[in-house]
Amino acid sequence: MPAYLCITGVIALTKVFIDGSTGTTGLRIAERLEGRTDIELIRLSEEERKNSRSRENAMNEAKVVFLCLPDDAAREAVSFVSNPDTVIIDASTAHRTSDLWTYGMPELAGNRERIRASHRIANPGCHASGFIALIAPLVHTGVLAKDVLLSCFSITGYSGGGKKMIAQYEAPERDTLLSAPRQYGLSQMHKHLLEMQKICGLQTAPLFSPIVADFYSGMEVTVPLMGCQVCGGMEAIKEIYRSCYVGPVIRYAEKTDESGFLSALSMSGRDDMEISVYGNEERILLTARFDNLGKGASGAAIQNMNVALDIPETTGLVL
Questions:
Q1: What residues have CB less than 8 Å from 35, skipping those under 6 apart?
Q2: How far apart are CA 71 and CA 94, in angstroms?
Q3: Known catalytic residue at 200
Q4: How far is Cα 209 from Cα 155, in angstroms, rounded to an integer?
Q5: Quick one: the chain helix, strand, coil %, rounded to 5?
Q6: Confidence band for 3, pLDDT divided at 50, 70 and 90
Q7: Model pLDDT, residue 250
Q8: Shortest CA distance to 274 belongs to which of 129, 168, 156, 110?
Q9: What is the pLDDT of residues 163-219, one digit of tens each?
Q10: 294, exposed or middle or buried, with CB in 10 Å at 0-12, 13-18, 19+?
């Protein structure tokens, strides 16, 4: 499925449509694609974006459609596509646990081939991307049991909350409480929990504590383990990460802390992810650092598009 064909000297660009192009993820995808010479973005006026028929025509004209919409709107948008050749990459939560959709993390065992053959790709959630990168290969190889009970905490920049939260944090006169980190998901019903559990093959969803802090973008996901939970100890974990994550998008790195600190800002503006292991044989910390708007959203979506089009996977990514 090449990205473009050359026929009698004419290059046919791959047509791409972003449904929901005014949201944070949609805007970032559009920015990344505008500089590409192999892509033609299908653009609709503000009036046309509100017209279902115009959107439907754009989707069926496109080779790749990105859905950057709320869940219900994403489900409706899928029903508009009748072109069997159109590849849909959904950035919402709507299809991440559906058996009819391919989970869009190429680094998971066998997933790159599934994405390349798929026309329905569910882009991972931001927090979930870090958790799954850390835990899925450990469960699948038996280093962690499927019935293991896990906890996870994750720090994110405020851009992950979308336009409304960005406006709150960047307002000239804002609530003073925004100046300190804020924990949320207090009901333990966060929307990422279902995919975290299913994609990792866990019998029980983790206890999850997400935290938003006063910086624009960046994410740090940490999963603590007791040594008795791990078959083979720290070295078994490191060996799996060394074999699974050799880059260029996800890579394993030996202790890259900043003099005993670990900043969630370190990967801001990038599309890659850094996996590390800290602690000792009794108490182990698994960490994933990346950008919530990069590998946690738009960067992952573009990577999935590249894989689906069978072009170099890192095309257009910031690494």
A1: 316
A2: 5
A3: no
A4: 9
A5: 35, 25, 40
A6: very low
A7: 98
A8: 129
A9: 999 999 999 999 999 999 999 999 999 999 999 999 999 999 999 999 999 999 999
A10: buried
DSSP-based three-state secondary structure for 286: strand
Half-sphere exposure in the Cβ direction for 305 (13 Å, CA):
32
Domain with residue 244: its CATH number is 3.30.360.10
Nearest Cα to 77, choosing from 4, 18, 26? 18
Domain of 44, in residue numbers:
5-124+297-308
> Given the structure tokens 């182990």, which residue do they identify?
284
Torsion (CA) 236, 296, 225, 240 in degrees, nearest 10: 0
Section 11-29 average pLDDT = 93
Confidence of residue 11 (pLDDT cuts 50, 70, 90): low
Single-letter amino acid code for the residue at 54? S
Is 23 inside any structural domain?
Answer: yes
| Strands of 123-247, DSSP E | 151-157, 182-183, 207-213, 219-226
Assigned token pair, 11: 């290059």
Question: For residues 29 and 68, is the Cβ–Cβ distance under 8 A?
Answer: yes
Q: How many C-alpha atoms does 155 have within 13 Å on its Cβ side?
A: 18
CATH number for the domain harbouring residue 84: 3.40.50.720
Tell me, yes or no, whether 132 and 242 share the same domain: yes
Crossing angle (nearest 10°) for helices 126-140 and 193-200: 20
Q: Which of 126, 152, 200, 244 is catalytic?
A: 126
